[in-house]
Specification:
- The chain has about 525 residues and is α/β, with parallel strands linked by helices.
- It is about 35% helix and about 25% strand.
- Helix 1 runs parallel beside helix 3 and helix 13 runs parallel beside helix 15.
- It is globular, with a radius of gyration of 25 Å.
- The termini are far apart.
């Protein structure tokens, strides 16, 4: 059986054929009008799903992250696989691998969850479309504390925490209205629960106050020494939480890859996660260089924590509205959002991560939360956002090379950031001001897309009107420095000559007509 596997040569993945695989993926929750409801019997529409999967593939994505929802439970328990088989078959039709995320509703009954998940895993055991199994989407401390453990013991809900640190809150200070209903009946567990939450809150506050780039950096530093016993209990809790879910799933499909979709970095960085095959983290943020750099720092710290295992961003994205209140919208230029998504995606590639999955394919129609509504690659009515072209370009230049490339990201007063990314088969430049390799003149956010041929020929285009200057040999190592540069404008199948530049001279191109330019070493056409 051919399955995705771990790369023994370095932290990364191999595809079903044994070739290195960079996960360039997208999360999918349904069409614009049925996000988080694609499995509902009255809204399930295989034709719309196929339409979206075709869009995903045309956009360059190679992987989908799909979700098991409550609507799937009844049909799975009665052995009705028709809708699952149809959707997975459509993914295979369009060459899309599937990462399937379980327990999105956060059921606390761990043994039941593991047994149910194992039914799905067993059914798809021999299906080559499966990228990996995601045990739970975004579990948090609350989910760990209220879970039902096989032996009835949650390590954080014991006396160990207060025995070491003393009481963060006394029994008389416990307000039962703030305790989950499942724990209120046991005053001792309620007491332990409240102390665990207060300990976690104090730990998190001190991590922020430490001045270190991320909570993961803090956990790895001497500053966190006082929290060692707490982190050990938290780690034991994660291990106890993982085991009754992971074990039956592994037994049903022992050769498959497993992860957890963590969105709290302190949980993602715990040693118990070494039981997983790769590490998955979710992160969002506002546009801006400082926030983006903090995300870079957190990712690198997580990578240092697990140096021998792959790390993947399971969710990331920049919304076209940063407000969560529909009465106080804060729109973001889609081009600026795309710049940040492009820079983060290139960072994952250049810095040795195993990939990332953009949240998400489609915007959400009529959503009460503008931030969540505006995270799609496509806006409502099938309108492509600038990021779609970015992902398509990156897919095209990464498809035929394993070169991770090099990335430089800098602050930009007009577009928040600018970046230069170059690899063996192409480049991507973004921002509103000039970089070191390509000088550009534009007052608007723009991406410059460059593709290299193995003979040194360059194809250059942009998603905004601008003038650029560059030397061909700065873009491609295959360019012949002694060759003159012939420039052609491409329109459909027509090549219109625009001039010849002497060898070694910087080219100046006015990309104002949304038409690519082809730059060819003159010696190739003589």
């Amino acid at each position: 059986m051919s399955v995705f596997s771990l790369n023994p040569a370095k932290p990364g993945l191999l595809d079903q054929t044994g070739k290195p695989f960079f996960t360039l993926g997208v999360n999918y929750e349904g069409y614009f009008d049925r996000a988080w409801a694609m499995w509902r019997p009255d809204l399930y529409d295989a034709a719309l799903i196929e339409k979206d999967f075709a869009k995903a593939r045309r956009s360059g994505f190679n992987t989908l992250r799909l979700f098991v929802q409550k609507e799937n439970r009844t049909e799975v328990l009665r052995g009705d696989w028709r809708r699952f088989d149809t959707v997975f078959g459509l993914a295979e039709k369009y060459g899309l691998a599937v990462m399937l995320a379980f327990n999105d509703e956060h059921s606390p009954h761990l043994e039941q969850v593991g047994a149910f998940n194992a039914k799905i895993v067993k059914h798809f055991k021999d299906n080559p479309v499966i990228h990996s199994w995601d045990i739970e989407n975004e579990p948090r401390l609350y989910n760990l504390l209220v879970a039902t453990y096989p032996n009835g013991r949650c390590p954080l809900l014991t006396s160990a925490l207060v025995d070491h640190y003393g009481e963060f809150a006394s029994r008389s200070q416990i307000d039962l209205s703030k305790i989950p209903a499942a724990l209120r009946r046991d005053p001792t567990k309620a007491f332990y629960y409240r102390n665990a939450v207060l300990a976690y809150t104090k730990f998190s506050r001190q991590a922020v106050q430490s001045g270190l780039p991320s909570t993961v950096d803090y956990m790895r530093s001497p500053q966190a020494a006082q929290w060692g016993p707490f982190l050990e209990l938290l780690d034991e809790t994660v291990a106890a939480w993982l085991a009754p879910q992971l074990q039956p799933m592994k037994a049903a499909d022992p050769n498959r890859l497993f992860s957890v979709g963590w969105n709290w970095e302190n949980l993602a960085a715990l040693p118990a996660n070494r039981a997983l095959d790769f590490h998955q983290i979710h992160k969002y943020g506002k546009v801006g260089y400082t926030t983006l750099h903090k995300t870079f720092s957190m990712l690198k710290a997580l990578q240092r924590t697990f140096p021998s295992q792959p790390v993947i961003m399971g969710e990331y994205g920049y919304s076209t509205d940063e407000s969560r209140d529909p009465a106080a919208r804060r729109p973001v230029d889609p081009r600026i959002a795309a710049l940040h998504e492009a820079a983060l995606t290139c960072f994952l590639r250049a810095d040795g991560f195993a990939g990332g999955l953009k949240w998400m394919l489609n915007d959400v129609r009529d959503a009460p939360n503008p931030f969540e509504a505006g995270l799609g690659v496509f806006a409502d009515a099938e309108k492509e956002k600038p990021s779609r072209r970015v992902f398509s370009h990156l897919a095209s230049i990464w498809r035929s090379t394993q070169d991770p490339g090099q990335l430089q990201v800098m602050p930009d007063s007009r577009t928040r950031i600018r970046f230069d990314y170059q690899c063996e088969r192409g480049s991507l430049f973004g921002g509103g001001s000039s970089g070191d390799v390509v000088r550009r003149q534009t007052g608007a956010p723009a991406h410059i897309f460059v593709t290299h041929s193995i003979t040194g020929e360059l194809r250059v285009e942009a998603d905004a009107g601008l003038t650029i200057q560059f030397k061909p040999n700065d873009l491609s190592s295959q360019w012949q420095p002694q060759a003159e540069a012939a420039v052609y404008r491409l329109k459909a199948d027509t090549f219109s000559p625009e001039g010849v530049f002497p060898a070694g001279q910087a080219l100046s191109l006015a990309l104002t007509d949304d038409q690519p330019r082809l730059i060819t070493p003159l010696s190739q056409i003589v």
